[in-house]
Amino acid sequence: MPETYDVIVIGGGAVGCMVARFLSRYRLSILLIEKEADIGMGASSANSAIIHAGYDPLPGTLKAKMNVAANLMWDTLAGELNIPFERRGDYVVAIGPKELPKLELLLEQGRRNGVPGMHIISAEEMRHREPNINPDVSGALWAPTGGICDPFAISIAAAENAVQNGVRILLETAFEDFIMDGKRIVGIKTNRGDFGCRWAVNAAGLYADVVMHKAGVRPEFKITPRRGEYCILDRAEITVNNVLFPVPSDISKGILVTATLHGNTIVGPNAQDIEDKEDRAVTYDGLGELWDGAHKLVPSLSPRHVIAVFAGLRASGNAPCETPGVDYNHDFIIEIPREVQGLVNLGGIESPGLTSAPAIALRVIELLKEAGEKLEEKPDWQPIRPPRPRFRDLPHEEQKRLIALDPRYGRIVCRCEMVTEGEIVAEIHAPIPARTYDAIKRRTWLGTGRCLGSFDMPRVVDILAQELGVSPLAITKKGPGSEFLVRPTKQVEG
Ligand SMILES: Cc1cc2nc3c(=O)[nH]c(=O)nc-3n(C[C@H](O)[C@H](O)[C@H](O)COP(=O)(O)OP(=O)(O)OC[C@H]3O[C@@H](n4cnc5c(N)ncnc54)[C@H](O)[C@@H]3O)c2cc1C
To answer: 235, 362, 457, 494: which has the fewest C-beta neighbours closer than 10 Å?
Structure first.
């Protein structure tokens, strides 16, 4: 008899981790499995980091409902989980007279979706608010409820809080198939053996189509990876203060220029449909497209200040919206399908999926209740994830106190981002232990500055090896196959 849980969540991105976190409020045994070496390594860590206001999705779609409902949740949630988040608002910027009418359409759409506080500002006002904006600006839509966040922190914080509340998380554990008893799911097969369950939640992102097809659900549903490339600019080159969207196209919100919470400017993403679900390559042509888009909004931006590039893959699905009269074929799937028992099926969770993740989690709970699941709240559920000290943000006196308690907080390992050995060690021993270089990077922002880790990397490998009690040869960048070192210095081959 395999180890059995009430609920198994397949996939540890923002959605799976939020589902696990919100479900951990109830008396349920929960397992979350993630195929990678850390949680949040998929789309949830390679995106624009915007908490969308909700004017972009078509009224009546699940995307619109989830986006607007979730947007309201972010202040409380970010507070409870200690996720960096700022509600700075955002702009859709019209360039030239032809784009201006599109702002009216978006404003109307946003109002129908229930987005509060939006209005259109004049070109003059926009130039005043964002001095580097293209002088041909003709007006802008202002949405005060838009926000920016630390996308890495979302999955990590939600998963840690889930663990605090009794959820078990298994990394490097890949779903392979369902175990069925007739039409009922009774468990899953993984590369680490079988696990029993009463409910399985499909939160596998790009692979959600593969997972649902294993249960015989929606054979016509297909996820096409839609790649979006980005450039990150050096922090010394602050060119914008806000989130600036162009007027959107039919398939994407367009190439935006935005400030990040860490003080950098980012440019991107473009949108290319590709076949390979693992192809996160950044291309020469793609970068050209980014700069055309960026210069349309902010002509003075210079590619000379790029310090890093990356790409993320949207899990773009082909699910029709189920609201009568809404003609849209890329909606979220959030359902308990009729064909099988025991599956909560989430699919096509492309943008605004990061924003929507907490509302999707609440919808999952509603669906389980509607299916007759008696969800009993735990009296001792703990919604707060305790923060760990972030040395660079502390007042001087606090820094001194911390160093006196643990001298490792006095040793700076990453000079650009001022991350200390103490913080690295704390992450290695956190509720979800950071066991790779990238896992530490996502939690502390080490290695994200101008030197991109050249100075800190050898030290981090050393600290990881020491704390995990393994050879430095075993330390990886992001899991098996990405080891930094191949053999000890001067070791003779053969
Ligand atoms: C370029 C780009 C820009 C975006 N910008 C924004 C934005 O600004 N704001 C916003 O709200 N949204 C944005 N999004 C969308 C958002 O990032 C996603 O909707 C969201 O992160 C989806 O979360 P997820 O958990 O469903 O998917 P993922 O984060 O991809 O997580 C799915 C997880 O499932 C795991 N998995 C897959 N198969 C298996 C298996 N067989 N066994 C075990 N685990 C498995 C994967 O490894 C992965 O970790 C953007 C997306 C992209 C790509």
So the answer is: 494
- Location of structure tokens 């409820």: 145
Contact by Cβ (8 Å): 474, 439? no
- Closest CA relative to residue 358, chosen from 83, 118, 30: 83
Order of strands, edge to edge, in the sheet holding 50-51?
50-51, 147-149, 85-86
Residue 47 and residue 268: Cα distance in Å, rounded?
Answer: 9
Ligand 1 centroid distance, CA of 372 (Å): 29
pTM of the model: 0.97
Can you tell me which atom of ligand 1 is nearest the CA of 269? 1
Atom 18 of ligand 1, residue of closest alpha carbon: 353
Token pair belonging to 103: 């702002």
**Which of 19, 48, 63, 360 is the pocket-test mutation for ligand 1 (most atoms within 8 Å of CB)?**
48
Model confidence pLDDT, tens digit, residues 461-490: 999 999 999 999 999 999 999 999 988 887
CB-neighbour burial class of residue 225 (10 A; exposed 0-12, middle 13-18, buried 19+)? buried
Ligand 1 pocket member 8 (CB < 6 A)? no
State whether the beta carbon of 319 lies less than 6 angstroms from ligand 1.
no
Task: Please tell me the distance between residue 407's alpha carbon and the centre of ligand 1 in angstroms.
Answer: 38
Q: In the predicted model, what is the mean pLDDT of the chain? A: 95
Query: pLDDT digit string (tens) for 168-209?
Result: 999 999 999 999 999 999 999 999 999 999 999 999 999 999
Helix-strand-coil percent breakdown of the chain, rounded to 5? Answer: 35, 25, 45
Ligand 1 pocket, residue 437 CB under 6 Å:
no
pLDDT at residue 486, rounded to an integer: 87
Kindly list the structural domains of the chain, giving each domain's residue range(s) and its CATH number in brackets, ordered by start: 3-44+152-223+318-370 (3.50.50.60), 86-147+224-313 (3.30.9.10), 391-474 (1.10.10)
